[in-house]
Specification:
globular
Amino acid sequence: MRRYLLPILGFVGMALASPAAAADVAQIGCVLDHLDAAGRTVITDHAAAMVRIGSDPEGTKRVSIALRTAVAPCIAQFGWSDDAAVAANIYAMATLSAAGGEPVLRERGIDVAKIKRVYAAIPADLRARIQNGRIDDPELPDLLARAMSDADFPADQGDYVGRYAAYLMAIDIGRATFARS
C-alpha cells in the first residue's frame, strides 16, 4: 500500500505553507466553484486511473491545466498568497479525486464507507501531523499505511485502499494548509 501513496502524495507535497496571515477558510471552495464540467471530468477521470493503476502522466498534465485555470479568478478575487492558491488547488483536486475514485473501489467490492471510518479514526497524533501539512515527513506514508492496514482490509484491496486514503489525507492537508496561508 505504501508504494501507491507516494505518487499521490507527491502532488500534495506542494502544500507545504510558510506562516503568513491566514486565508479565510470559507473561500477554499472557490477553485471547485470555478472548475467547469470539463475540468471536473479531467480530475475525476485522472483519479479513477490513479486508483486503478497508480499512474496517469498525461492526466496529471491535464489536471494541472484545469486547476491553474480555475484558481486564477480566486487569486484575483481574494488576493490569495501562492501558498493559499496551492492549498486550495490541492483541496479541490483531492475532493474531486476522492469522488472519482469511489466508483472504481465499489466495482472491486471495496467498502468506501469503511475506508472513511478508518481514516476518521486515525489516532490524534497522526491526524495532527497530517493537518499540520507535514507531507515531507518521511514516516507519514508508513504511518498512514499502517493505520489503514490495521483495519483488516483484504490483502488484494490494500493498494486501492491506500490510494483512496491518500486522497482523504490530501483533503485534510489542503484544508489545514489553506487555513494557515
